[in-house]
Design goal:
With 263 residues, the chain is of the alpha/beta class. The chain contains 6 helices and 6 strands; from the N terminus they run ααβαβααββββα. The protein has a 6-stranded mixed beta sheet with strand order 2-1-3-4-5-6. It is elongated, with a radius of gyration of 27 Å. It holds the Pfam family CsgG.
Length: 263
Amino acid sequence: MIQKNKFAALLAALLAALLLAGCSPVPELQTVPPMVDQQSVFETLASSPPPKSDPVVVGVYNFHDQSGQRLVSSRPVSEMSTALPQGLSSILVQELQRAAEGKLYRVVEREHVDAVLAERRIVIASLPEEQASQLSPLLLPGIILTGGAVSYDRSVSQNLRGLGLKSINGVKEVVTDQVGVILRAVSVKTGEVLVSVHARKAVTSARSGISGLHILGNDILAFEAGGAVNEPVSLAVRLAIAAAVLELTEEGFKKGWWTKKSA
């Protein structure tokens, strides 16, 4: 009878721990949208109403990771990778071109302008003088966009739940980091900073697991199960940049960069 009671208590503890862990070794991850806009930023950008006026010509300069954060690894090795993805300017260019399906911004290449100029020199040298003189001039931007990812704050919030009975333990943990992006629009004519916007995006990680060790007569029962899921940092950064572009566009309409079409 005593052995049955012990087995019943063990079974109850196992069921409670499984319930705490979500009845699944891999927890469900709920991503948090950017704080600038609670809707789907990508859909909002793509469905922005096209302006009545022409697109604004912009150039992207030095939009890089400025947070200085390094990747934290659970392995006992020296990790030189950065916490945030590189190539942020490429992401910014893509989101600018997505805005209103390319009807708001015309983006000129400035990060690799040396390659563009070198190729133009090759073209000019390869063509007859009459054809070379007909080569169109480079498009000149009136606004340059700069800034970058300025922060990556770790563990801004933690949610931990655990339950243990005898030798059985269950745990579920959710950790939230936060990435911050600043985007500035600067006038080429005057050098004045026309608009500066800040967007933040939460990066959520979750893990759950259950473990236990129990002695049954001359035998030992040991078990462990669990899993973890992490929101991709690259997706979070892209969402933050898209949110910054969305807010920049709203400020641009207020400042008269474009003329809205009448309804």
